[in-house]
From TrEMBL:
Main location: membrane
UniProt membrane topology term: Multi-pass membrane protein
Annotated InterPro entries: CidB/LrgB (IPR007300)
Listed transmembrane segments: 6-26, 38-59, 65-81, 93-119, 147-166, 206-227
Organism, as annotated: Jutongia hominis
The name this protein goes by in its record: LrgB family protein
Annotated localization: Membrane
Length: 230
């Protein structure tokens, strides 16, 4: 069985899609935030790899083909944004202010944690790009001489956490405005947050998709300054 899996070119794609489908089924049956398809998929994949003693490199060799769809799927976010362009024009000041506030809050929180827990410089700068998409975050971390692998892990965890707790946060703070929901998710939880935003509504998805790009640019500008603080 193990030899068959290792020789299969598309094993990584197959196990990824199967575990995600399991997550979707569980989410439909159990309406609870922790039953997030992405979170379940990650956990199930880890259990499978450990159970069959399959190393990550073997899994990644096949799973990498999924990443080819990342760019076209990201470009597709332009469609709901175009459909909601009038709302963007009407509320552009509030939207940009919200994204900037989110980026500043993220950077300040990382700085405060670094001070409280006495992070070293490399550890600190590795966390600065935690709320932006992986492609940009890796570049920021590398430019600041951080640990890129830690940055990637933190970005993924941030995205999953935002995806899982978003609706709970909205309920606690009585956030009902679709634009605010979308901006919050895209700015704080990048692509994984946008996936959740698209589930919630079309306006939320459009604003979240916009926020990914803008927050990435703002973080690229802010990160070098915050990096000098420790």
């Amino acid at each position: 069985m193990k030899d068959f899996i290792q020789e299969s070119v598309f094993f990584g794609v197959f196990i990824s899609l199967c575990t995600y489908e399991i997550g979707l089924l569980l989410k439909k049956k159990v309406n609870f935030p922790l039953f997030n398809p992405l979170l379940i998929s990650i956990a199930a994949t880890i259990v499978f790899l450990v159970g069959f003693d399959i190393d990550y490199a073997t899994y990644e060799e096949g799973a990498k083909y999924l990443s080819y769809f990342l760019t076209p799927s990201t470009v597709c976010l332009a469609i709901p944004l175009h459909q909601q362009f009038e709302k963007l024009k009407k509320n552009w000041v509030a939207i940009l202010s919200g994204i900037l506030a989110g980026c500043l809050t993220s950077a300040i929180c990382v700085f405060l944690f670094a001070v409280v827990f006495s992070y070293e410089h490399k550890e600190y700068v590795s966390l600065l790009p935690k709320s932006i998409t992986t492609a940009i975050g890796m570049g920021v971390s590398e430019e600041l001489n951080g640990y890129v692998t830690i940055s990637v892990a933190v970005i993924v965890v941030t995205g999953i956490l935002g995806n899982v707790i978003a609706e709970m946060i909205y309920k606690i703070f009585h956030i009902t405005e679709p634009i605010a929901k979308g901006v919050a998710l895209g700015t704080s939880a990048h692509a994984m947050g946008t996936a959740k935003a698209l589930e919630i509504g079309e306006i939320e998805g459009a604003m979240s998709g916009l926020s990914i790009a803008v927050s990435g640019v703002i973080t690229v500008v802010l990160a070098p300054f915050f990096a000098t603080l420790i």
